[in-house]
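Exercise 4. Each item below gives a protein and its sequence. For each, produce the structure-token representation.

Item: Disease resistance R13L4/SHOC-2-like LRR domain-containing protein (Ambrosia artemisiifolia).
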Amino acid sequence: MGLININNGVVVIVIVIMCLIGMCVNGEDGEYEGVEGGAPMVKTEQEALYSAIQGFVGAGWNGSDLYPDPCGWTPIQGVSCDIFDGFWYVTDLNIGSIQDNSLTCGPNPKFSPHLFQLKHLKSLAFFNCFSTSPIAFRSGNWTAFSGSLESLEFRSNLGLTGPIPTSFGQLERLQSLVLIENGLSGGLPDNIGNLRHLKRLVLSGNRFTGKIGDSYGYLSELLIMDLSRNSLYGRLPLTFGGLTSLLKLDLSENQLEGNIPSEISNMKNLTLLDLSNNKFSGGLTKSIQEMSSLQELVLSRNPIGGDLMNIEWQNLQGLVVLDLSSTRLTGGIPESMSQMRRLRFLGLSYNNLSGYLTPKLAELPDLTSLYVYENKLAGELKFPRGFYDKMGRRFGAWNNSDLCLPFGLMPMRLGPFGVKTCREVMLSEIEQYFGLMADSYVPLLVYMSWVVETQLDAR
Ligand SMILES: *[C@@H]1O[C@H](CO)[C@@H](O)[C@H](O)[C@H]1NC(C)=O
Ligand SMILES: *[C@@H]1O[C@H](CO)[C@@H](O)[C@H](O)[C@H]1NC(C)=O
Ligand SMILES: *[C@@H]1O[C@H](CO)[C@@H](O)[C@H](O)[C@H]1NC(C)=O
Ligand SMILES: *[C@@H]1O[C@H](CO)[C@@H](O)[C@H](O)[C@H]1NC(C)=O
Ligand SMILES: *[C@@H]1O[C@H](CO)[C@@H](O)[C@H](O)[C@H]1NC(C)=O
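Answer:
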């Protein structure tokens, strides 16, 4: 007991000393804004906050008038504070019209030098702030935040242009870097890969270009990587196998090329893999069959090539969405695809797939969309009638010239769009065989179609 009391005493003394130091350093004249019942705020911090906000909102915004106690009884929407050594400091700053009473940016927002004096700032976010007059990151002193900032977010700021400064690589406490739909350009700085605590890296919808550096594969704590909708090119670094914590990887709508590296299967917890709209080639990587956490696999619109046959699709028991449309696939559709029990969306359209469509797909309990149009599938569709009724237009099989619906299964107008009945397919084959409908063949044709029809009716 005695020991604990001594320790508590030491702690109190340390806090008192730290407060004294804090006062000496921060309040030049020992001056601070005291408020009854709450912690005080150092005057320099308070003025830095007002000036920083004024930089975004405009000179007409008078903080000291409107919010005399910003961390206490006159809180500012979008500003959060915390107590350090007995004084209030700003920890979160959210600028932009998220809510009715949010701080809305004026016509000429700037990064005031005072912003970078908020030394306990952990989270800084801008929504729809820099829209008209262009502004660049380099106008700010970002290294000042290296010891504190954990989250930095810019959404929908089309006026925010230029590259990501290399100084972002020094924000070593950063856990979340989100730069969505801004006007940013240039390459991705390699030293972002030094931000080892990064959990979320979202850079989508800008004009970033160049290659993804090897260092990005060292972000071993990363949970979400979204670099979609940029102009990134080159191959995926093999180091990506080091992103073992990743849950979501979205690189869609870039110009990335080369193989999908087999190391990708090291991402054992990955639930979303979206590489659509790129230039990936070299066939489907067999190792994707080891990614048993996958729920959405979207590889559409890539010249991937190869076939579906050598992958054990039944291993992907969590897969809900599989989109392989426009991927230059050839060969058949394996039965194992009908063993992915959670599948809801299967997109295989715009390929060169041939052979039959297994009727077992109709047994998938959750399947709501099946698209196989524009392929070379052939033969009679063997789904039960109820399947077509259930799916409607969400079963797309048109433009498979040799695929047909059994004659008499259902009225044509209720059958799948663009699929002929088997009788019509046979007739057209007969027509092709005999060339154009020359008069002399008409009686023969009539006879043959009668044979085909009676055969079908007999079944
Ligand atoms: C804000 O208002 C106070 C008191 O009304 C005034 O003294 C101060 O000069 C004003 N500041 C600005 C920047 O307009
Ligand atoms: C930027 O911030 C750092 C750290 O706070 C400081 O040492 C440096 O002088 C600042 N640079 C400028 C140009 O203000
Ligand atoms: C994968 O997820 C499991 C369960 O959530 C977790 O225990 C494990 O640490 C994760 N693996 C990695 C490499 O993060
Ligand atoms: C199918 O293959 C042919 C011949 O190789 C090719 O010209 C065509 O573009 C392919 N179609 C699709 C959708 O990949
Ligand atoms: C099928 O393909 C042809 C030729 O490529 C095209 O004209 C037609 O619009 C496509 N769609 C349907 C439903 O037939």
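Check: The CA atoms of residues 226 and 250 lie 5 Å apart.
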